[in-house]
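Thread: V-type proton ATPase subunit D, structure

OP (GT): Posting the sequence first so everyone is looking at the same thing. Length is 202 residues per the record. Can we get the structure tokens written out before standup tomorrow? I want them in the notebook alongside the other entries.
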Amino acid sequence: MGEVMREAAFSLAEAKFAAGDFSTTVIQNVNKAQVKVRAKKDNVAGFIFIRLPIYAISLSSCCGSENLFIYHSGLTGLARGGEQLSRLKRNYAKAVELLVELASLQTSFVTLDEAIKITNRRVNAIEHVIIPKIERTLTYIITELDEREREEFYRLKKIQEKKKQLRERTEKEMARRLAQLGPIAEPTNMLTEEADEDLLFE
């Protein structure tokens, strides 16, 4: 870019030296822009969706010849510097193309830099805020589950101990009652007895 701009500036100085001050003549003879910049969007799909602006030059040939204003304005010939003006035009056309390309690259760079900053902020938020919060929540849940498991184990042991105490108390109570009643005679079976007393009805 520096070399092209330096060459364009030198060619402007040469043209002014050869043809004199021709700016008013050129401005009067040019009524339509020959260089137009068109913008379009380029999609970049990655971690986030980015639309990059792309600039391109479209050259419109005004009246069919690029040097028509030179011929009409009387800037041709040995003393008028037509060759220097043509070289000046070519050099500045090249400089404009490079400037548009540079503007496109710089705009894309700024857009991508902003997208990278946003992505870095999101990554930092996930890494330093969300993930530690989820890890603390998981630690709390695991601690609560362990505590609940210990409580359940303690409760089951207490229930077994109470059942054991109740069973021992019941066995002692049964043994005490059996000791109070003495030996219990086995009841006789009426169906197996062969000798029945006669019943007398009066």
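GT: Both are above now. Quick notes for whoever picks this up: The helical segments are 2-19, 23-29, 68-72, 82-181. The longest helix spans residues 82-181.
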